[in-house]
Amino acid sequence: MSKKNQDKLLIFALGGVGEIGKNMYVVQYANDIVVIDSGLKFPEEDMLGIDIVIPDIGYLTENRDKVRGILLTHGHEDHIGGLPYVLKHLNVPVYGTKLTLGLVEAKLKEAGLLGETKRILINADSELQLGTIRATFFKTNHSIPDSVGICLETPEGNVVHTGDFKFDHTPVNEQYADLQRMAGIGAKGVLALLSDSTNAERSGFTPSERTVGAELEEMFRKAKQRVVIATFASNIHRIQQIIDACEATRRKLTVVGRSMVNVVTIASELGYLHIPDGMLIEPDEINKLAGDRVAILSTGSQGEPMSALTRMARSSHRKVDILPGDTVIIAATPIPGNERYVGRTVDELFRIGANVIYGPGSVTGVHVSGHGSQEELKLMLNLMRPKYFIPIHGEYRMLRVHGMLAEAVGVEKENIFILDNGDTVEVQGGVARKGSKVQSGNILIDGLGVGDVGNIVLRDRKLLSQDGILVVVVTLSKQDGSILSGPDIISRGFVYVRESEGLLEEANRIVSNTLTKLMNDKVNEWASLKTNVKDALGRFLYEQTRRRPMILPIIMEV
Amino acid sequence: MSKKNQDKLLIFALGGVGEIGKNMYVVQYANDIVVIDSGLKFPEEDMLGIDIVIPDIGYLTENRDKVRGILLTHGHEDHIGGLPYVLKHLNVPVYGTKLTLGLVEAKLKEAGLLGETKRILINADSELQLGTIRATFFKTNHSIPDSVGICLETPEGNVVHTGDFKFDHTPVNEQYADLQRMAGIGAKGVLALLSDSTNAERSGFTPSERTVGAELEEMFRKAKQRVVIATFASNIHRIQQIIDACEATRRKLTVVGRSMVNVVTIASELGYLHIPDGMLIEPDEINKLAGDRVAILSTGSQGEPMSALTRMARSSHRKVDILPGDTVIIAATPIPGNERYVGRTVDELFRIGANVIYGPGSVTGVHVSGHGSQEELKLMLNLMRPKYFIPIHGEYRMLRVHGMLAEAVGVEKENIFILDNGDTVEVQGGVARKGSKVQSGNILIDGLGVGDVGNIVLRDRKLLSQDGILVVVVTLSKQDGSILSGPDIISRGFVYVRESEGLLEEANRIVSNTLTKLMNDKVNEWASLKTNVKDALGRFLYEQTRRRPMILPIIMEV
């Protein structure tokens, strides 16, 4: 990025386009870069062994002197989860509202980065001057309190980033969206709107979180014994409504699952959860109370194999057993890919004899989304009346559908930009066009390794997972190339060895014959030996089993 | 099974309980065994490298003299797909309706079993005497024509197996369900009803297949260019409606995808598809016609990576390209677990510039289920008025919910049996109770191997897929145990070797040191050497990387 860019506005994503998660958007004017959010995503099914995925921040580290800070819209993992990795390589100030910073601080503490990170508390009324860019905020509704959208005033015009949002006209805990401020921003003029596309495929309005509260209270009333309820740990509105349902039905509440305990602790310390005195009890106290005086709030709404709910369902939780007749409510919708896990957990709960209230089929689920549906997306578009529109946060099809909605409310078709990560929109003299691409991509994190697992390693893991591996070892004489020991074949993940002795003996014979023949032909370069062994053995095994295990020939020399 | 059983009726599943797929139910009276269906299921996500799963038929092969035959309810893979494997071990007659046998025969031909298998054509009016058991049939509605339910008249009473069903009052091609015969069976008295639970979680009625036809025709009319439509190859009713939509909109039709071509060929030869003369064209003829005169029927409605639709979406299909402005209709709902595949295919189609009509979110999907919802399940229960009820075909929670429906329509709670595969219901003197368990389970098929991949192999594949493998080879002297060559470390799927040289060098040093120390301590049993190397290396790698690759120490001796 040379001087030519100094009077341009650049807008792009390092993550968050064409995917759910790993959100990170960048707005740059001349020498000032503002980063919005720093999320992670969970690995796709072909990223074997990978723990999490973060965006490639090469562009930011190369321009580290220009980065004025990271502004956070809210405290969900796909918006803050990448911070511990990003801040290690890019120590810049982090701006967030009270709850968001509270959650970030817990995360940084765990990573040992709390001391060295500059954290700046903002609220919806804050105004920041970040070089030539001025940032203001507006309250939004989302499935976590203290969510904000961001307006970046630049010399080229105002760029609005909605964060994640819905319009909830009856929000829990009076967390109203600031329609007046949004309309005010729209009245002053919006150059470009970046808006959440997660639910762009859903028609209508997303129901209010409060509808869930009413259902929950009804279920708590009907339950004759204990209520076990699992939901997303971060959905503090819902947790408040669960507390309210406990109060209305005179139940004590205990909390199980590490992330649930963490969030409840942080949110109640910061005043985002209002828990009546004496309601919270320890898990080991529940057995002293009558069943209809007890509720248990748990993680595991996605059926995660190690979560508290799954362990309770398998009767392997250290402290809490679910009893026949208990009511278990799964107050969440399975994230695509998790349906089978949730299904299995529900199966186990039914086997125990619990009454299970869950989502699949059209049995009433107890959940509403935190993201706005089509009518709300149109409302945001009409509040902002942007000249340019950039749909964000979503798979490609969602961005496309969101683009169609923008067209429907009057944005010019050629003013709608559907970008891939790294694609830029350049604005100069009030005119936007697609600019050149910046570095972007996935950084895979496996254990302590950041980026050391790439395509070759993943391809090998995939191969190994399908048909296993055969290692062929042989020791040759340095002097005359004759076989001193072996060939030995060791397999893992291929066949059950005890029942396949004949096959492996035959395989051994084929390797021996291949080697002997090569030696008679005076072939003795290792590369040829290995290739020939691999080919002969691979062919034989495929004929016999229709499998293609990885074959690893190793030659030792003495 | 000794003489004690000779005057008992036994009912059990070898597959189909607590799972979707792999359906196989067994009814036995004294020395007569009747098997209903012989399905396969696709592997669960932890069955790495497995191609398909069939039921353990040990009980049937042990009692092979008693098995009178396999009755097939319809031609779906989860009801007939296991036949090529089962018939190899159990050569018994197979009974099916015309279309069902047509599909079975194509399958047996491929497996080279057609000549040696006795196939007996039945229709809904057939009556079979299978030893002491008499079988009659009744027409049902399902997403494939020629589906039947089965009534087995035994000395203990009538056992009814519904097969898969819905009630479609406006079926395609006049394939009416035979309500009169069902009611007649109910009037005569039903001892036990085994009924399809697939949609037991869905309230209301499943809409008629015909509603899809109306939508399709509308979409075909609106499409300005070509229509590409993907659906389940076996859904012949839907294919007929696609043909009808082509006729109504004067489009020629071409068929792509191996299974789609197969089914269309078989079904039209047998008279289950009515294709106007001249409508079918070859894929390479479509470019000669105007876009609005062409439709393309394709496999790939589940986004399967190798399917025709996915290849067209990636512009890598040999014969057909999708062009900007073409309309692509996905006339199917993603089976749980396939959502991401379908999503990616839709993304690719949008990128090409196609108009995509698909299911997720609440954008109109073009699909109805072939399985009855709760009101239809209650209707079946009330038509049959059984004394005993055994919900079949479904995950445990679906069976439980179906059981609750049966209770709601008046079946005694203690007369409802929710079984696992292998659990038996024994009936004697008109009284049913849970009997002893018979052998049952999953047989995993990987390539040509049937049952040779078990838990150990799968556990190794899982390990290998997560963190890869390190092979450590060393050649020792037979005489004094000294190291003659190595240790060498070769890794696959662990780290990218070129960027991790330091780590692997250090690993090598640790192995050398461990071996040297052991030799100085006069430890030279191979088992100890291997264990010590594994432990030391494993500890080091975990500390450095937080990964636990499989470590395979190999000692050669010269």
From TrEMBL, chains A, B:
<keyword id="KW-0540">Nuclease</keyword>
<keyword id="KW-0269">Exonuclease</keyword>
<dbReference type="Pfam" id="PF17770">
    <property type="entry name" value="RNase_J_C"/>
</dbReference>
<dbReference type="Pfam" id="PF00753">
    <property type="entry name" value="Lactamase_B"/>
</dbReference>
<feature type="domain" description="Metallo-beta-lactamase">
    <location>
        <begin position="21"/>
        <end position="216"/>
    </location>
</feature>
<keyword id="KW-0378">Hydrolase</keyword>
<keyword id="KW-0698">rRNA processing</keyword>
<comment type="function">
    <text>An RNase that has 5'-3' exonuclease and possibly endonuclease activity. Involved in maturation of rRNA and in some organisms also mRNA maturation and/or decay.</text>
</comment>
<dbReference type="InterPro" id="IPR055132">
    <property type="entry name" value="RNase_J_b_CASP"/>
</dbReference>
<feature type="binding site">
    <location>
        <begin position="367"/>
        <end position="371"/>
    </location>
    <ligand>
        <name>substrate</name>
    </ligand>
</feature>
<keyword id="KW-0963">Cytoplasm</keyword>
<dbReference type="InterPro" id="IPR041636">
    <property type="entry name" value="RNase_J_C"/>
</dbReference>
<dbReference type="InterPro" id="IPR042173">
    <property type="entry name" value="RNase_J_2"/>
</dbReference>
<dbReference type="Pfam" id="PF22505">
    <property type="entry name" value="RNase_J_b_CASP"/>
</dbReference>
<comment type="similarity">
    <text>Belongs to the metallo-beta-lactamase superfamily. RNA-metabolizing metallo-beta-lactamase-like family. Bacterial RNase J subfamily.</text>
</comment>
<keyword id="KW-0255">Endonuclease</keyword>
<keyword id="KW-0479">Metal-binding</keyword>
<dbReference type="InterPro" id="IPR001279">
    <property type="entry name" value="Metallo-B-lactamas"/>
</dbReference>
<dbReference type="InterPro" id="IPR036866">
    <property type="entry name" value="RibonucZ/Hydroxyglut_hydro"/>
</dbReference>
<keyword id="KW-0694">RNA-binding</keyword>
<comment type="subunit">
    <text>Homodimer, may be a subunit of the RNA degradosome.</text>
</comment>
<comment type="function">
    <text>Counteracts the endogenous Pycsar antiviral defense system. Phosphodiesterase that enables metal-dependent hydrolysis of host cyclic nucleotide Pycsar defense signals such as cCMP and cUMP.</text>
</comment>
<protein>
    <recommendedName>
        <fullName>Ribonuclease J</fullName>
        <ecNumber>3.1.-.-</ecNumber>
    </recommendedName>
</protein>
<dbReference type="InterPro" id="IPR004613">
    <property type="entry name" value="RNase_J"/>
</dbReference>
<dbReference type="InterPro" id="IPR011108">
    <property type="entry name" value="RMMBL"/>
</dbReference>
<dbReference type="InterPro" id="IPR030854">
    <property type="entry name" value="RNase_J_bac"/>
</dbReference>
<dbReference type="Pfam" id="PF07521">
    <property type="entry name" value="RMMBL"/>
</dbReference>
<keyword id="KW-0862">Zinc</keyword>
<dbReference type="InterPro" id="IPR001587">
    <property type="entry name" value="RNase_J_CS"/>
</dbReference>
